[in-house]
Amino acid sequence: MLLVGNGKVITRDTCQPYLADGCVVIQENMIIEVGLTQKMRQQYPDAEFMDAKGRVIMPGMINTHMHLYSTFARGMSSKDAPPQNFVEILERLWWRIDKALTLEDIYYSAMVVLIDCIKNGTTTIFDHHASPGAVRQSLFEMARATQAAGIRSCLCYEVSDRDGKQIMEDGIQENIEFINYATSRQDDLTRGMFGLHASMTLSNETLAKCSKVNDESKIGFHVHVAEDAADQVDSVKKYGKRVVERLAEFGMVGPKSLAIHCVHVDEREMDILRVKGTNVVHNPESNMGNAVGCSPVLALMEKGITVGLGTDGYTSDMFESFKVANILHKHNQGNPSVAWGEIPTMVFENNPAISSQYFSHPIGKLAPGCYADVIIVDYDPPTALHENNVNGHILFGISGRAVVTTIINGKILMLERKLVDLDEVEICSKARELSSKLWSRL
């Protein structure tokens, strides 16, 4: 048994939102109680005690859309002319890198980012993977990495027609085999979804096949939706339907599915997403970096659609994504009064709600019956901290690198900024070796 106490506990539990001197009681991989430090120590005198030293104790952060495979693009120079639009970014960068990845690349590119997640307090990720040159076993390599790191994950492979029929078929099979494997596991650290790239790289025949083979598992789809206007143009031109209408026709939107981005959706598409109960995931930094526009997530939330927050591989720091989402919508609407409530809801309510559809017990909350995914943050508030202003303190006072201790599933992965089980130097050295070889292949 482990007590994590003597800290300012932000629980995200409406029954007990904040404790100025609180303690989280962990038994194996579950939280069994949260209370005042002195009381918990008296109640569990034989338990190991971790002293938070007056710092903030809070739930680990959840990233509902990630691309671990993008790691080896960091710092890479392109010999092509700079891309002028989103499709050129795909063609000149991402579709070249993903095609060149080997299974060994996949493992080490994932490990580097997973270390970053631990160091930034991100304890759960929903990843969307692509490696057309090494499709089969790719998700199993990624799972090997997430399990070695100790990160809670939900993985999928993005099926696409862009690399031919055989690779498309391999992508379908990889999803199905991995979903079956993940579902059979008992530890609840690894789960699977059915991945799709985007409407503009998927034929009707492929969508129909994916829908049919995924029907029995009742697992949701994880798909990019109208990230760029080009996706809508392609869908209307080829099929006479907008993207969400087309995906809905094949059953790709629904309660357990993730519609990523939704930058260029219209009112009717929003209504379809609402009626189908589809989750949307916003990725503000990626959308800004790709210059695709600002997703109308405030309007989506007004309609009652569950909108989560991800990073699209842009960063491992969900605190950073939280900050950027807040200012993006103020800037986009020219109104400093918007997004104060919606963005915290995405991060601290909707991301846990999305996760609950895939993991057996709640995460993103410090309360009895939740998984023990806990972080300690080195933050000494300069003003009063209480249950009504915790979001303001997080927004303006906390970044990922302020995380000093990360616990996932009851296991300590980082203690006082030192990784417990992982050799970061060795992993990064191997990643540099493999990434250099990948760059030379490109």
3D structure, described in words:
The chain is of the alpha/beta class. The protein folds into two domains: 2-59 and 362-419, Urease, subunit C, domain 1, CATH 2.30.40.10; 61-356, Metal-dependent hydrolases (TIM Barrel, Alpha-Beta Barrel). 40% of the residues lie in helices and 22% in strands. It has helices at residues 37-43, 86-100, 103-120, 138-149, 165-184, 204-214, 229-239, 243-249, 267-276, 284-289, 297-302, 318-333, 342-355, 390-397, 424-441; strands spanning 2-10, 18-27, 30-36, 48-51, 56-59, 61-66, 122-129, 152-159, 190-192, 194-198, 221-225, 258-261, 279-282, 307-309, 374-377, 403-408, 411-415, 418-419. The strands form two sheets. Strands 1, 2, 3, 4, 5, 15, 16, 17 and 18 form a nine-stranded mixed β-sheet that branches. It is globular and about 65 Å long. InterPro entries: Amidohydro-rel, Aminohydrolase_SsnA, Metal-dep_hydrolase_composite, Metal_Hydrolase, MTA/SAH_deaminase.
